[in-house]
Amino acid sequence: MKHILFLLPLLFLACHRPADLPEPDETLADMRQANAYFMEKWPDTGKRIVTNQSRASNIWTRAVYYQGLMALHDIDPQPEYYQYATDWADFHEWNLRDGNTYTRNADNQAAGQTYIELYEIDPQPERIEYIKASIDSMMATDKIDDWDWIDAIQMGMPVFAQLGVLYDDPSYFERMYEMYAFTKNEHGENGLYNPEDHLWWRDADFDPPYTEPNGEDSYWSRGNGWVIMALARVLEILPEDDPHREEYIADFRDMMDAVLKVQREDGFWNVSLHDPNHYGGKETSGTAMFAYGMAWGINHKLLDRKKYMPPLARAWNAMVDEALHDNGFLGYVQSTGKEPKDGQPLSYDKIPDFEDYGLGAFLLAGSEIYKLKQRS
């Protein structure tokens, strides 16, 4: 392992930011504010998203937002949240992007996570017909190498876990593990996970010999955030006796320890985890994902409360104090891409190409922080 000298100052996270999390009602108010901004901006849930091209509103970016909305609904069951989600799913007839049921692309299956959650609230068969058909079409083959970029782990892996529980069918869990293990150990030169640093390269384009400008490995903040989110969501669903559960827990703990060591003093994370000077600066989406992982891990007694509470408080307070606008807009969200340079430069006022996935991660983090403070 390289001696990462630049990390040493970050181990001493002295910061004047409040070291405690706000009270639950304050966290909920911030979540409501951020969510209201988005719902008011997008009153038509079926409206296509137009950036450099026109895309259906059930693509992965919007799917992550709805994962966050369902987490908000779980702690704050407002009828308008449920209606907003069901209107979105109804518009798309509970099918996947552009009606392509039999896609193997995890990005286009991500909407299925919310479809299944809505089915669990109101079990109408059409709500899961298409997402089950999509995953079952993958299960009918021996192909396990589809997740060749780490974002896909978050988009697709929880769906397998949900279906396995819903149908009491461990074959979904086993296929999920096979695909995860292939991405971890075999894609690229030796897998996309570095067991030495406990972080992931985004895809085979970024594993060694590729390096960041300072010579370190390229670990993209949001890419690693996707894996942390996936592991947390899967572990919450997965039966306690699943044979691979301990490996998922070990990976989750190792990753959380690795990202803890590179948190910025102001509570945020840089987009490049091992090169703070490569487009360094505050970034909200990765920070929200790591905060979600910390809060979820403490809530589920997988992370040490004493160790992780202060950095969690710094991260959440940083986002609320420095990224959340009075109208609910979230600043410092990196636009879509696959590496630190994409969507740069960031700022408090800059609107990213998609505003939805960063908000989804923020709502997921807030929901776990709300639960954490209620229990304390």
Largest sheet: 2 strands, antiparallel
Rg, please?
19 Å
Kindly identify the CATH topology.
Glycosyltransferase
Sheet with most strands: strand arrangement = 1-2
Helix content: 40-55%
Q: What's the CATH class, please?
A: Mainly Alpha
End-to-end span in angstroms? 39 Å
- Estimated structural class: mainly alpha
- The number of distinct helices, counting runs of at least 4 residues, comes to 13
Overall body shape: globular
* Total number of beta strands: 4
- Proportion of strand residues: under 5%
Low-confidence stretches: 1-15
Report the average pLDDT across residues: 95
Number of individual domains: 1
The CATH architecture can be named as Alpha/alpha barrel
Order of helix and strand elements from N to C terminus:
HEEHHHHHHHEEHHHHH
